[in-house]
Design a protein that fits this description.
single chain; 7 helices
Length: 149
């Protein structure tokens, strides 16, 4: 199982924004820090802002801030909100399932239980838990950025 790049980028944006809190960050800064397309990040930031995880301000003095305190942002909720479907196999898709085993197969139930356990575990953790020591995050990203130049 692999989360989409959109979800990965969403988590990275939240982690960086939380580590930099209370300072504002820019999309350009995020793009350069993670070496990710600015266009991709615009979509990610807009989605996170629409969901209330980020606040954005345009123009001079603008930037991106967390829309909630990091202790209130539950990782499982973020993933469920931004991941485009959790169809782990064809049989999960309503209207797209053409598997002939569906009426007798027990795999779907097992996989659904695994997905539920996965999301339950992620729901035990907040963005604050993930960030831990913000300065260590900033230093790790600065070191990585320096090594790629």
């Amino acid at each position: 199982m692999q989360l989409s790049k959109f979800t990965d980028y969403s988590l990275r944006v939240l982690i960086y924004t939380a580590a930099r809190c209370p300072d504002k960050v820019s999309i350009t800064e995020l793009a350069e820090t993670y070496d990710i397309s600015r266009n991709h990040l615009v979509k990610v930031v807009n989605q996170l802002a629409n969901l209330g995880y980020l606040e954005t301000t345009r123009g001079r003095g603008g930037g991106i801030l967390l829309g909630q305190v990091a202790e209130e942002i539950v990782i499982g909720d973020v993933i469920e909100a931004v991941e485009p479907g959790f169809d782990m196999a064809e049989c999960f898709g309503i209207g797209t399932n053409h598997c002939r085993l569906t009426p007798v197969c027990r795999l779907k139930g097992i996989m659904n239980d695994a997905k539920t356990a996965f999301l339950r575990e992620l729901s035990l953790h907040t963005l604050a838990d993930v960030v831990g020591q913000p300065q260590a995050i900033i230093e790790a990203l600065a070191l990585e950025s320096a090594n790629t130049r």
